[in-house]
Every structure is written in C-alpha cells, then in structure tokens.
Design brief:
Elements: H1 9-27, H2 37-42, H3 45-54, H4 67-80, H5 90-94, H6 96-99, H7 103-115, H8 122-126, H9 130-137, E1 144-146, H10 147-163, H11 171-182, E2 189-191, H12 192-196, H13 201-209, H14 211-218, H15 222-230, H16 236-258
Pfam family, one: EF-hand_13
Domain EF-hand: 134-160
Keywords: Calcium, Metal-binding
Length: 273
C-alpha cells in the first residue's frame, strides 16, 4: 500500500481507536473521557450510528465512521511520523502541509495539550476543530478573541509573506476582512458563538496561522467554489479527505501496476472530482 500499513490486524485496531478519538473529541466537550447523557443528546453520535447501521457503504457515513477518513488520517500521520513511533512532536508538526502552520500556533497546540496532560500523539493530527483552534488563539482564556490576540498570530504570517517575496496584506485590512466574514455581535471582539454561526469560520484560522490555505483562500478556484455551493452539507474536511483518498488510491494503483500486480489505470474510471 502507498502508506505502508504494517499489517492487517494493527490498522483495524487503529481504525477503531481513531473512531473513538473522533467521537470523544467532538462530543465530550468537558474532555474528561466520559460521555454524559446530555452530551449524547446534544451530539450527533446516535444519528451517525443509525446511519452506519442502515448504510451498506461505510464511506457514506461521513461522521466518525468513514474508512476513507481514517485512511487519509493514517497516511498523513504516517508521512509525518518518519521514525514510526506514533508520536508527533513540535518539529514534526511544523513540517505538516509543507510547513503550512506557524511556529506560534504549533506552540499553542502543544501548550493546550500539556494543560490536559495528554501525550502528543495521533490525537494532535486527528481532530483539532473549531473550539480547539479558538482556545489556541484565546491567549488569556477569557472566551473572546481580541484584536491584539489575532494580530499576535498574524504577525508571523506577515513575516512569512515578506520572506517569500509575496505582497504582504496589512493586519488592518485582514481585521476588516475577518469582521466582514464573521459579522460578530460586537465588532471589538469575536466569540466562539460568533464563529459557530458563520460558515467561513475555518477561513479565519487559516488567515491567522496557515499560510498555504490563506493564499489558496485569496486565490480561490471558481470550480471549488461551485462545488461548495452544490454540496453545502460537506465540510472542508469531507472534501479534503475525499480528494486525498482518491489521490492515495491512484498512487497505490500505479505502484501495484509497476509491480505487475494490477491492471493499468483506466482514466475513464476516475471519479469526476
């Protein structure tokens, strides 16, 4: 396989553990490792389990159980974890996405995990969602993102743009763009509630600490925009995982073909993505 799975039993165990990580990360908001009845009622786990029971193709169950999602997570982790000890440290995470993340946000990710006494392992890469990014940016932990906090993280983005000889975008302009995108109740700060009510909330974090995605957002492909409009229920992660799974599967087919163990790839069979 393209990401060199060690053996069949181990990946199945890891797949199950990844599903559990995802469930607890999204539903167990207290982070105490115990799901309450209230959390179950507020979450979508029961609906996802019913969907998994009724659906023959597990990859159509996008919440938690998709094998495609697990495969992409595993391969991305395996590519980063070059010594294959199943631990991700700061220096390794910095390399993610061709050094997409800033040093400041990586430091915050690990400081948040240290506060919870968690090992820096697969969980770092698996599920860092909206509320987690919010906590990373919220330096004083008061539940709001201020101008100074956002500027602190954007400063490194600005420096990276200058180093890459790209035209820098001043923070004042970025702040206006963020306010327009989010439309917060109070324009002097942003709350988690403001972000949850906006479909572009993920783009705010990309602007602040992911240069690759920030530049991609600034030069968005009209084809991808049309896809988003046609499938509004899909998340950015759903689209990314689907693209990556197709790419990884094609690489595996090419590898098998080169070894004489599979038929040559037929372009007519490629998914229209």
């Amino acid at each position: 396989m393209s990401c060199d799975l060690p053996n069949m039993n181990f990946p199945l165990q890891l797949a199950a553990e990844t599903v559990i990580y995802r469930i607890f990360y999204y539903i167990n908001r207290s982070g105490n490792g115990n799901l309450t009845l209230r959390e179950l009622k507020r979450g979508n786990l029961i609906d996802a389990m019913q969907h998994a029971d009724e659906e023959e193709d597990i990859n159509k169950v996008l919440r938690y159980f998709s094998y495609e999602h697990f495969y992409v997570i595993y391969c991305k982790f395996w590519e980063l974890d070059t010594d294959h000890d199943f631990l991700i440290d700061k220096e390794i995470l910095i390399r993610y996405g061709n050094h997409a993340l800033t040093y400041r946000i990586v430091d915050r990710v690990f400081s948040q995990r240290e506060d919870k006494s968690s090992e820096p392992s697969l969980g770092v890469l698996v599920c860092v969602h909206l509320s987690s990014w919010f906590k990373c940016i919220d330096l004083d932990g008061n539940g709001i993102l201020t101008r100074n906090e956002m500027q602190f993280f954007y400063e490194e983005q600005l420096h990276r743009m200058e180093c890459m000889a790209q035209e820098p975008v001043l923070f004042e302009d970025i702040l206006c763009q963020i306010i327009d995108m989010i439309g917060p109740e109070d324009e002097s700060y942003i709350t988690l509630r403001d972000l949850k009510g906006c479909k572009l909330s993920g783009s705010v974090f990309n602007i602040l600490f992911n240069l690759n995605k920030f530049m991609a957002f600034e030069t968005r492909d009209p084809f991808l925009i049309r896809q988003e409009r046609e499938n509004p229920t899909l998340t950015d992660w759903d689209r990314f995982a689907h693209r990556e799974y197709i790419r990884l599967s094609m690489e595996e087919d090419v590898e098998d073909a080169s070894n004489g163990s599979a038929e040559v790839w037929d372009e007519s069979l490629e998914a229209p993505f």
